[in-house]
Amino acid sequence: MPKLLPQISLPYVTVEGGGLFPVRRIYCVGRNYADHAREMGSDPDREPPFFFSKPADAAIQGHHVPYPPMTSDLHHEVELVLALASGGRDLTPEAADKAIFGYAVGVDLTRRDLQAEAKEKGRPWDLAKGFDNSAPLGRILPRERVEIGNATRIQLAVDGVTKQSGTLGQMSWAPAEIVSRLSAYVELKAGDLIFTGTPSGVGPLERDQHVVAEIDGLPRVMFTLE
Ligand code: MN
Prior knowledge:
CATH topology: Fumarylacetoacetate hydrolase, domain 2
CATH superfamily: Fumarylacetoacetase-like, C-terminal domain
CATH class: Alpha Beta
CATH architecture: Alpha-Beta Complex
Structural class: alpha+beta
Number of helices: 5
Largest sheet: 6 strands, mixed
Radius of gyration: 17 Å
Bound molecules: manganese (II) ion
Strand content: 25-35%
């Protein structure tokens, strides 16, 4: 194989128990928990999920996350992340479910001030959502090693104070439905990560604050903003 010119490193996420998961694309669902839809001022009815994306190298692991430039209102959103081992187009929910390799905890970091401006002016969300280091992730746990269900708790604490707390049963669209819907828009492939939305309680983060994001049974995410 010819060598890459220039030499670049490809993004990956570690897998619990060994191995690296190469990240191809990152998709995210907007508003998948009714109580978060309400806190953002929209109708919590079960409308079809909508999607946005982040660059693959927004995925980061580690205990330090740089506070991004061009914002004074960085928000946390704790989310269940699906890691795909295969893909396809127009997948049924059953086929979509089989494409899921494992799960991780992720934080959809958001420059809320830029997002609010984009919403108001009808502009793209890209730089509100898809900036450098905007997708802190925990290790991926292969699905056969975890049981997740409606009662599974999802939460996030800032400096030891719980800010977000919910259950996966509060999601309007279940993982297989999300993957199925997304595959109607784009062909999905191995290496894709899908953030599945956040429960209520999103809020601002400041420099030096410590974030712990957890979903029962999955490796947690812990980082300090710098
Ligand atoms: Mn989100």
